[in-house]
Amino acid sequence: MVHDPVPALLSRATEKLEAEFARLPAFEPGWNADAMEQVLAETAHRLGNNYPYFHPLYAGQMLKPPHPVARAAYALAMNINPNNHARDGGRASSEMEIEAVLEIAGMFGWSEYLGHLTSSGTIANLEALWIAGQVSPGKRIVGSAQAHYTHSRISAVLKLEFTPVAADASGRMSLEMSLDALESELRKGDVGTVVVTLGTTAIGAVDRLHEVLALRERYGFRVHVDAAYGGYFRLIADQLEDGTRRAYEATTHADSLVIDPHKHGLQPYGCGCVLFRDPGVGRFYKHDSPYTYFTSKDLHLGEISLECSRAGAAAVALWATQQLLPLRPGGEFAQGLASGRRAALELDRRLRAETHFTALAEGAPELDIVVWKLNAAGTDEASTLAQRIFDACAQKDLHLALVQLPLFWFDPAARDRDRLVTCLRSVLMKPEHEAWLDRIWERLKMALQEVGGE
To answer: Phi and psi of 164, rounded to 5°?
Structure first.
C-alpha cells in the first residue's frame, strides 16, 4: 500500500476540533486503550481478506477508493457523530450538506431545486419514484431493460407498475427505441414517468435523454434521470461522443435526478443524492415532529427526506472533498474523470486489435467501462474461457469482473436475441488506471496465454 496521509492529517485536525470545545469541563470516558488496540489489530488482519479496491490493479467492479480528505473528514466528524435529520442533531453538518448539494445541482445547471443526500443511490431513486407516484398516482414507470434492477423492485415496493422496454444494440435507450418500443408504451396514455439512465451498470451506456425529452413534449410524462454512476461525466461532456454529450447537456431539463458521490465522487459508502427541479414537491414530504423541528426556523433536512437519521459525517466528507476538488470543468476532479475515460478508450482499442477478443459492435465505451467477449467455437466455450481468464488474472493480482450480455451486442448477425454470453468487464474509474494500463494489459495477455487462449 502507498503511504497513507490520513493519520497525520486527522491527528492535526483532531487537535483543532478539540480546541473548539476546550471550554467544556474535562471528563474521563473510561476507555480501555490496550483492549481497543488488540481488537483493532485483529480487525486489520480480518480486513486483509479482501480485494485491493484501492490499487490500480483492481479494475473490476465500480469500487473507487474515497479520497484521503474524505476519509479524514468523515473520521473527524465521527468525534461528534452528527445526525443530519434535524438541526439539533447536526448544525454544522446540515449547513455543509446544503452547500455540497448546491454545488452538485449547479453541475447540472440547476439553480432552483429541492435536494439532499441519502444513504445510497437506491434510496435516492426510491424517493424520486415515490414523488413520481405522488405527482401521477397509479401511472406506470417505464425504463430501459438495461436500467438498474432497483427501479423495478422500488416500483413494486411503491405499488407502481414498472414496464421495461428493449434497449438497442448499444445497451441504451436511443432514437430507434424511443420511436418504437418506448413510444408504443406512451401511446397507451398511462405512463407517468420514464427512467433515463446516464451510465448503465453493465457497460456504462448513456440513454439518449434529449430524445426522451422530445417525446415528453408530446406525451406529458415526468423524466427521472438515474445518473448514479455516470452523473459526474457532465463535467467533461464536451469530451464525449456527440449523442452522449447532448444527453448530458439535457440534464438541465429533467424532473428529477440521482447521483452517487460514493461512486465517482470519491466518497465513502454510503452517500447518494437526489434532486428535484421543482422545489414544490417538498409538499409531499411535509410532516410534523414535536421534538425535532421546533428548535430552528431554518430548513431541517429531515423535512425533505424520507429517511430520518442520516450520517452527518457523509455530508462533512463530501463538503471537504468539494472544497479541495471543486466540481468545475477543467479542474483536477474533472481531469481525473477524463483520465479514466482515456484509459477505457485505449483498452478498448487494444482489444479490437486482438484476434482473441471481440468488443462491442456498436463502438467504443461511452464512459469508462470496457466489456469484451472471448472468441471461441461457441457461446458456452466463450463463457467458460472468460471465467478461466478471470481466475488467471486474479492469480496475477489483476482483478477484473464478469458480466452476462446479449450475444448480438458483439455479433449483430446472431439469430437468437435472447442468448447471453459471459464476458470480461473492466471499470477504469481510478485516475491512476491510465498510467497502469500497460501493466494491466500485460497481465491480461499472460492470463490468456496460460489458459490456452492463444
So the answer is: -80, 145
Beta bridge partners of 275: 115, 257
Q: Which amino acid is at 204?
A: G
Between CA 2 and CA 4 the distance in angstroms is 6
- Pairwise CA distance, residues 213 & 208, whole Å: 9
Nearby residues of 41 by Cβ (< 8 Å), 6 or more positions away: none
Ordered DSSP codes for 15-79: HHHHHHTTTSPP------HHHHHHHHHHHHHHHTSS--TTSTTB-SSS--PPPHHHHHHHHHHTT
Do 148 and 162 meet the contact criterion of CB atoms below 8 Å apart? Answer: no
Residue 375 parent element (H or E): none
Per-residue pLDDT of the chain (454 residues; tens, 9 = 90+): 778 999 999 999 999 999 999 999 998 889 999 999 999 999 999 999 999 999 999 999 999 999 999 999 999 999 999 999 888 889 999 999 999 999 999 999 999 999 999 999 999 999 999 999 999 999 999 999 889 999 999 999 999 999 999 877 666 655 444 557 899 999 999 999 999 999 999 999 999 999 999 999 999 999 999 999 999 999 999 999 999 999 999 999 999 999 999 999 999 999 999 999 999 999 998 865 544 444 455 567 888 899 989 999 999 999 999 999 999 999 999 999 999 999 999 999 999 999 999 999 999 999 999 999 999 999 999 999 999 999 999 999 999 999 999 999 999 998 888 899 999 999 999 999 999 999 999 999 999 999 975 5
C-alpha distance from residue 181 to each of 97, 162, 247 (Å): 40, 14, 19
Whole-angstrom Cα distance, residue 389 to residue 114?
Answer: 47
**Rounded Cα distance, 378 and 30, in Å:** 66
Cell numbers for 323, please give them. 472544497
Q: Which of 394, 350, 392, 343 is nearest to 372 (CA)?
A: 350
